[in-house]
Design a protein that fits this description.
- The complex is a heterodimer of chains A (363) and B (258).
- Chain A has 363 residues and is of the alpha/beta class.
- Chain A contains twelve helices and ten strands.
- In chain A, 34% of the residues lie in helices and 19% in strands.
- Chain A has a ten-stranded mixed β-sheet, sandwiched between helices.
- Chain A is elongated and about 110 Å long.
- By secondary structure, chain B is an alpha/beta fold.
- Chain B has a nine-stranded mixed β-sheet, with helices on both faces.
- The A-B interface holds A 28, 31, 65-66, 68-69, 94-98, 100-102, 105-106, 155, 158-159, 186, 188-191, 221-222, 225-226, 229-230, 232-233, 257-259 and B 111, 115, 118-119, 122-123, 126, 156, 159-160, 163-164, 167, 170-171, 182, 190, 192, 194-196, 198-199, 204, 206, 223, 225, 227, 229-232, 236-237.
- Chain A: GO terms for molecular function: tRNA binding.
- Chain A: One of its GO terms (cellular component) is nucleus.
Chain lengths: 363, 258
């Protein structure tokens, strides 16, 4: 299933269509968006190198890790990037996003042709034009296209407002030369509306869910981190595709992160039973709302459960008329149509006794 | 096994000095504490480890909370002379107690005070690098006070500062050790500042009181969470209790102390 994301990104959109876009969502308890984007990067790079992809280049914008980290990563995967590589450009927004580093004293170069230093992160227009420029350097001005990868939009969101960021992403998607785009987002760091807005501008959403017993949804993100310790690095990977016709498809897999990277496997059969074993948050709340029979039905009075005879309170009220004479009750009811009058002999007789009355007979 | 190593050292990976002389190199360690249990003793211990005689690591210390004399006294009890380390060029102490920065005090070249602080650190790192080839640790005590000092401008500045410090860890293989208080943010639904730090950190050390209340023999517990995936042999989460003594800390696993 992680393959199918990769294939969608590799194949890109049709001409005249918005480029497919993927949001990779992580949380504090499952911070593995970097591994997922690494997985996609490695696969996309090798397919571009093999000429199997529709796009001919890759522009990587780094916010959370240094470019050398990615070069090292690709090298580990057997993809050697040299400064003369004609298929990848890295836009470095990590090293000096705000221009704090003093140019004069340390002599940081403006970057090679492979890695470009971008110094003004809050200026999204400039960022957009540098991305497109970097892409054009790779594939030229013609119809050839390139992929765009953004390693974390959290940093972007810290420096500019959400509408501007989603505007940038939409601009990138609608650019004719961008074949596909993906970015990752830590959903714990921002309000829910930010997550929703970014999901809205993407055609695919990949969600990394930790394996933790989150019985109540309101638990603090930090507590979750300490809860998942034994299963840290494992979890569920949910992907939601928005298809062209408007249909939505959701698929799930298991992931496992080790020192080599992220691995995906189908969800083990023990978990794929036909019915739900656990309640969702909504179901639990609704279940708690149900009033059980005989529970709180009397609004403050003591609970009465009918056991076949009159309750003690009723007996007291009627005690007086009974003592004045048994005949009286006959008189009162005589004019009516029909009635069953029954006086129980004694209280010893149990009304609905299950006991066998002949139990003690010795035959 | 070296008797001088305690459970915290083991959890941080100081037991494999031969394999990996500076296990924290290139890593970010976040120490979270709360009002009931201060986490500064963890800081002192890491300080002592970094400045120990059998390594040549250097330390850059940003003190927002306490003056030099305080650390000097404590580290002396732990058997480490800070003044001597200062002259040896192994300790650079930034006294930030009086730091105030707000947007009103922008300096002429349009750089805020936080940015200026970072430049100083970077300059120091470069100087230390030219002297020694060993690991450099940047320590902040504590981050929440920098946030206070930087308010008036934007608290985002502190996150920017953190980002730049993080870039130091990846570019020059420094370690970054930060002390921060967790319960300042407890009422917030999404403590973005705290969560951001947790995201950046490779190791999170949490100091908290015992759930069962105060005790004479146990002063609290530490949870060490190693977020790094690569070292699979080491347990990711370790939990142990501690007792603070006059000149040292005693660590033990829950229930293992007679």
């Amino acid at each position: 299933m992680a393959d199918s994301i990769f294939r969608k990104l590799r194949d890109g959109g049709e001409e005249g269509e918005l480029a497919p876009a993927l949001t990779i969502e992580e949380t504090v308890a499952s911070p593995f968006a970097l591994d997922v984007s690494g997985y996609l990067l490695a696969n996309l790079s090798s397919s571009i190198l093999a000429g199997k992809s529709k796009s001919q280049g890759l522009v990587l914008i780094t916010f959370s890790r240094s470019p050398s980290f990615y070069l090292q990563f690709l090298k580990q995967k057997g993809i050697v990037v040299s400064s003369s590589s004609k298929w990848i450009r890295i836009l470095d927004c990590y090293t000096d996003p705000l221009g704090w580093i003093d140019q004069s004293s340390n002599g940081v170069t403006e970057g090679s042709s492979l890695i470009k230093l971008h110094k003004c992160v809050s200026d999204l227009k400039r960022l957009f034009s540098s991305i497109i420029e970097a892409g054009r350097e790779l594939v030229g001005d013609g119809k050839a296209r390139f992929c765009v990868a953004i390693d974390s939009v959290n940093e972007l969101l810290r420096h500019s407002s959400m509408p501007l960021v989603s505007g940038l992403l939409t601009d990138l998607r609608s650019h004719a030369q961008v074949s596909s785009i993906f970015w990752s987002l830590n959903t714990d760091l921002h309000q829910e509306k930010v997550t929703n807005a970014l999901e809205y501008v993407s055609t695919m959403k990949a969600n990394l869910e930790p394996l933790c017993p989150s019985s109540d949804g309101k638990r603090n993100a930090l507590e979750n981190l300490f809860l998942v310790h034994q299963d840290f690095g494992k979890g569920r990977f949910h992907v939601r595709f928005k298809l062209r016709k408007g249909r939505v498809r959701v698929m799930s897999e298991e992931y496992h992160v080790d020192h080599l990277g992220i691995n995906f496997s189908p969800i083990s059969s023990a978990d794929s039973v036909q019915f739900n074993l656990q309640l969702s948050e909504k179901e639990r709340v609704e279940k708690e709302k149900v009033v059980l029979p005989f529970e709180h039905q009397d609004h403050g009075k003591s609970t009465e459960i009918y056991d076949g005879r009159r309750s003690l309170a009723d007996v007291k009220i009627e005690a007086a008329p009974l003592s004045s004479g048994e005949l009286q009750s006959d008189v009162v009811s005589s004019g009516k149509d029909g009635e069953i009058i029954y006086y129980r002999d004694s209280d010893d007789e149990h009304p609905d006794s299950d006991e066998d009355p002949d139990d003690d007979l010795d035959i | 096994m070296d008797r001088s190593l305690n459970l915290l050292d083991l959890a941080l990976g100081f037991d494999q000095q031969l394999l990996d002389p500076s296990p924290l190199s290139g890593k970010v360690v976040l120490i979270e504490d709360c009002v009931e249990t201060s986490g500064s003793f963890v800081l002192h211990q890491v300080m002592k480890r970094v400045l120990s005689t059998n390594s040549s690591d250097a330390l850059i210390f940003l003190a927002f909370a306490r003056p030099f004399s305080h650390y000097d006294r404590i580290l002396r009890k732990l058997g480490c002379n800070l003044a001597a380390q200062k002259t040896n060029n192994r300790l650079v102490f930034f006294d930030m107690l009086m730091m105030k920065c707000s947007d009103g005090e922008e300096i002429e070249d349009n750089v805020s005070a936080v940015a200026k602080l970072f430049r100083e650190i970077q300059e120091t790192v470069r100087k230390l690098r030219s002297l020694t080839n060993s690991n450099i640790t940047v320590m902040v005590d504590d981050m929440s006070l920098l946030e206070i000092a930087a308010t008036g401008s934007n608290s985002d500045r502190v996150l920017d500062f953190l980002h730049y410090c993080h870039s130091l860890t990846s570019e020059t293989d420094c370690s970054l050790v930060i002390l921060n208080h967790e319960d300042i943010y407890s009422s917030m639904e999404r403590p973005a500042f705290l969560l951001h730090m947790v995201c950046l950190a490779d190791v999170v050390i949490k100091a908290e009181p015992l759930a069962s209340g105060l005790a004479n023999d146990v002063h609290g517990q530490l949870i060490v969470l190693n977020k790094g995936i690569s070292r699979s042999s080491r347990s990711k989460l370790q939990n142990f209790q501690f007792k603070i003594k006059e000149n040292g800390i005693e660590y033990f696993y829950p229930g293992s102390r007679s």
